[in-house]
Design a protein that fits this description.
Distance between the termini: 56 Å
Mean pLDDT: 90
Oligomer: single chain
Organism: Comamonas resistens
Shape: globular
Protein name: DUF6138 family protein
Pfam families: DUF6138
Structural class: alpha+beta
Number of helices: 20
């Protein structure tokens, strides 16, 4: 049924079945509709459920983890909890050993100096690496790519990594977690860059997340791999731009940290400006940096910004950019450009259409500033 119709088409009816057989006869909600607190009914009938009922209910929970949206882990955990309270040890066995659907060679894997386990019921990949070498990191990357490409392992998952090198990317604000350490360390070997990119393209999935990163640290799978590659080599700029247009900017902000660090390190190059515009169109708020006006105050950077603005007009906007533009009754390209312009010049960019900035600019740069702050129709003619 899932293969033919898709999980979203059948999950509602499956959850109704779980509620009718597992929840409603034995539990009552003592919380609210928005904060459910299910507790055992004091006068409920004795539990007389077959192992098949528990198995099917847990299969629904696993379906949520593997094929549902990232937040479906809440409903999965609730089903596991109900089954456990009703006397089944199946949730505990699933959490310890997984579903048994993964090939044994991937559920428990080992190579020279490296070992890993994958639990598809918990959506957790645990990796231990003892050897610091290109070959060891290469084995880890091969394992991750095979696991994600050849199985139905959940697309939202956790990577719990322990390795020999405490290396992190030079990007302020990124969480110093094992998954960050893994890709920052592996990226030190140029021979692995294509494998890292292959993992990233396999892992990137809008609305999915690394499950062990929460709140302001939440990150789409593939994030640290993409950040590591793009920070080091413009060859991976297309991958970075694909990432920036895919990421759920309503719920993630780490890509803004990457763009800030990239511009700090490389300046307002054509690549840096492309990243800025893509990020501005797919993030809730891009910070103004006091260092930016001076970095932009040269003919090369201003000309690159003008060219990028003209190019950006024809780009397909992200969902976030399209929604913001609709609410503001303007084009998505111009909305993103104005966000980027504010990140560069702050509030001065919106006062009198940048008149003061234009007037205070060096004489030779004023025509470029005029194009930067011209209305979109004028910028097209320019």
């Amino acid at each position: 049924m899932r293969t033919l119709l898709g999980w979203n088409e059948i999950s509602y009816q499956l959850h109704l079945w779980v509620q009718a057989h597992l929840r409603d006869p034995f539990f009552v909600n003592e919380g609210s509709d928005w904060n459910e607190q299910w507790v055992r009914k004091p006068n409920a009938a004795p539990v007389q459920l077959s192992t098949d009922v528990f198995r099917f209910a847990c299969d629904v929970a696993i379906g949520d983890l593997k094929f549902g949206p990232s937040y479906a882990y809440v409903s999965a955990d609730r089903i596991f909890d109900w089954a456990t309270q009703l006397g089944s040890d199946l949730p505990a066995r699933l959490k310890k050993h997984g579903t048994g659907d993964l090939p044994k060679a991937l559920a428990q894997w080992a190579g020279p100096g490296v070992s890993a386990t994958a639990n598809d019921a918990l959506a957790v990949i645990r990796i231990t690496q003892k050897e610091e070498s290109e070959a060891a990191y290469g084995q880890v990357l091969d394992y991750l790519i095979e696991l994600l490409n050849t199985t139905d392992f959940p697309r939202s998952y956790a990577i719990e990594y322990r390795g020999p090198s405490k290396t992190y990317l030079p990007i302020k604000g990124l969480p110093k977690k094992g998954v960050h350490q893994l890709f920052a360390s592996a990226a030190a070997y140029p021979g692995l860059h294509d494998k890292i990119a292959a993992y990233a393209r396999t892992a990137i999935s809008e609305f999915d997340w690394y499950q062990n990163l929460q709140d302001e640290d939440c990150a789409m799978p593939g994030s640290f791999a993409v950040f590591a590659l793009a920070f080091m080599d413009t060859r991976f700029a297309p991958l970075m731009l694909d990432y920036l247009h895919t990421v759920d900017g309503e719920h993630q902000s780490l890509h803004g940290r990457f763009v800030e660090a990239y511009i700090d390190a490389h300046g307002f190059t054509e690549t840096g400006i492309a990243y800025l515009l893509a990020c501005a169109g797919n993030i809730q708020h891009l910070r103004h940096r006091k260092s930016y006006p001076a970095l932009m105050a040269n003919a090369q950077s201003l000309s690159a910004l003008i060219r990028a603005r003209q190019q950006h007009i024809s780009d397909t906007p992200s969902a976030n950019a399209a929604l913001r533009a609709a609410l503001e009754s303007r084009s998505a390209a111009e909305s993103a450009f104005q966000e980027a312009r504010h990140a560069i010049w702050g509030d001065a960019s919106s006062k009198d259409n940048g008149k003061r900035l234009i007037e205070s600019a060096p004489t030779e740069l004023r025509p470029l500033y005029e194009q930067v702050f011209a209305p979109i129709a004028s910028s097209r003619r320019a």
